[in-house]
Structure formats: structure tokens, C-alpha cells
Amino acid sequence: MLLGKLIGCGCVAALLVPFLSCGSAHDSDELYVFVAANRQVPYWRTAGAGFGKAAEASKLRYDFVGPDSYDPNAEREALDKAVQQKATGILLAVTDPAVLKESIDKAVAAGIPVITVDSDAPASKRAFFIGTNNYQAGLIGGLRLAEELKGKGNVVIFTMPSQPNLQDRLRGYTDALARTPNVKITRVVDIHGDPRVTFDTTTEILGKEKDKVDAFVCLEAQSGKEVAGLLDRFQVTGKVVMAMDTDPETLDWIQKGTIAGTIAQKPYTMAYVGMQMLYTLHHHKPTALGSDWSKDIYAPVPSFVDTGSSLIDKKNLDSFLEAGKSLTQAPR
């Protein structure tokens, strides 16, 4: 296991060294594009800031594009447009791998490196994936949830089943809760990328089944604050809420004690490293850009770069906020 981790680190280091030492050794027409899942969500704006910061550090042209709501088809159009513009490299946040696979493969066939970030499209020709070990994130959340419930309770989960990263988080929660048989997942709700589904479903639960649900688990960034707001509005106490990501409103509800904790990812780091790796892939292209490197023990690139995750609760919230004060705003 240690050897595998060292090899993976070596691959990442090998990709970054040319970028870090590149100075201004690049063509003036190079254009690096980050296609985000939803540019209006703070999570993706943070990622956009990381992408822009890395590009600006080496005076590279870049663009931050994508839909302003959860819309896989609109995201595919943004991806196709980047290919038409002959982007030098594309960083892609995958909303629906089935919708985006063909466009990813066309980009790679055109000689454009594509790296997926946050959520993967493993059946596509993308180079590799940068993001969170989402199973581990779910496991962390599930263990904390069982602790908060003191080993007993009914749980409702809000998710988007079409996204592989959320599937992995759900597996993590499920496996963690399996260790505590008296904590049961009674309902899994597909919000279809629309927080209003979370709002309506939680309202229904609180109105009709207030005593039957003990906890709400939100596997994506938007639902946690919706649930917390409703609990506060209806003055409902004694419910455990586990959130995802570090939306400012989510952090406010942690401070107020309504949300027990959230799993913090590193979108800034994902996109910052992604920009660096795209540069290196362009200037030092592998012999076959669309190869499945995961099956090659001598691969020139990693198959997965784990940027890490951590649990944020009331105890470490202040230190987390302090560390993020210097973060710049997302580009454009």
C-alpha cells in the first residue's frame, strides 16, 4: 500500500515539476478551460479561483465556464464549445458521465487533454481524475452520524444518484452505519440538482413524520442549509444534520449548532493542481492521450489524485475559517 502511494505521489510530482519551472515557456495562443458543474455554487467558485490562480502564476490564458444551474446538457454544450475553440486543455467537473462521455472522447480525439475533477467519468477517455476519496468522506460522515445519534435512529439521505462521487459517498455512509444496526437509512431522496426538492421533502417530513426521522444526511453542497433553515423555522430540535462542503450558510448553521458537521473537500486545490497538470500534459503529451493508464504499472500519469477531505464541526470551525481568509474570488 505504501509503495502504491509513493508511486502515485511520484507521478504527481513528475507532472508538476515542468509546470513549476516553466517560467514563460509557453505559446501565446494557449487557452486552458475549466468547465464547472454550476458556476453559481460557492464550491465551484472556489474551484474557479484555484484554477485562475494557477494559470495567472505562469501568465497563461484561461476561462471559467459552465451552466449557472445544475444542467448536464448545458455543461456538455460548454464542453463542446471549448473543443470548438481549440482549448489547450480542459478541466471538467462531471455532472452526468453518460451525458458527457461522448464529448470528452471527442475532445481527446482532437488532441485536447481532459482531466476530470470532483466527480469522474471513468468510462471516458479522460486522462485521470482529481478529487476526494468520496467513499472515505462518506465513511467519516457515517461514523460521526452514528456517534451523534448514540447508536439509534432513522435517517433520510438527500443525493443525486446519477453522480458517481455521490454514489461513493452513499456507500461510505451505508458501510459506516452497518456497524450500528439500530441506525437505519429509511429513505434516499434524489433531488435532481434542485434544492427545492430538499425543501419540499423536508417540509413534508417535518409536517407529517416529525417523530420518525432522527437525522438528515446531505451528500451534496446545497441541501444542508435547506434542511437547517427549515428546522430553525419550525423550531424543531433534536435532529442531527450532516452536510457536505463549506458553503458559507452551511458554516453559519454549524456555528449555530443546527448542523452537526460537514465534510470539507478541497475544490481550490483540485482545480489548482488540475491547471498545473493540464499544462504539463500539453507540453509533454503521452504517446497515446486516450490510453487507460490505470492498467499500466509504468503509466506516466496517475489514475486518481486524492486531494483529501476532513470533518468540520463547531470545535474546529474557527480555525478553518481563519485558514481560508486569504482565498481569492473566482475568476470572471
Give an overview of the whole structure:
With 332 residues, this protein is of the alpha/beta class. It folds into two domains: 2-132 and 266-306, Response regulator (Rossmann fold); 134-264, Rossmann fold. 45% of the residues lie in helices and 17% in strands. It has a six-stranded parallel sheet with strand order 2-1-3-4-5-11, with helices on both faces. Strands 7-6-8-9-10-12 form a six-stranded mixed sheet, with helices on both faces. Helix 3 packs parallel to helix 4. Mean pLDDT is 89; it is low at 1-10 and 20-24.
List the helices and strands and how they pair.
Blueprint: H1 2-20, E1 31-35, H2 42-57, E2 61-65, H3 72-84, E3 89-92, H4 97-109, E4 114-117, E5 129-131, H5 134-148, E6 153-159, H6 164-177, E7 183-190, H7 195-208, E8 215-218, H8 223-233, E9 240-244, H9 248-256, E10 261-264, H10 267-283, E11 304-306, E12 310-312, H11 317-323
Parallel strand pairs: 1-2, 1-3, 3-4, 4-5, 5-11, 6-7, 6-8, 8-9, 9-10
Antiparallel strand pairs: 10-12
Question: What labels would you give this structure?
Answer:
Rossmann fold; 6-stranded mixed sheet; disordered N terminus; alpha/beta; 332 residues; 45% helix
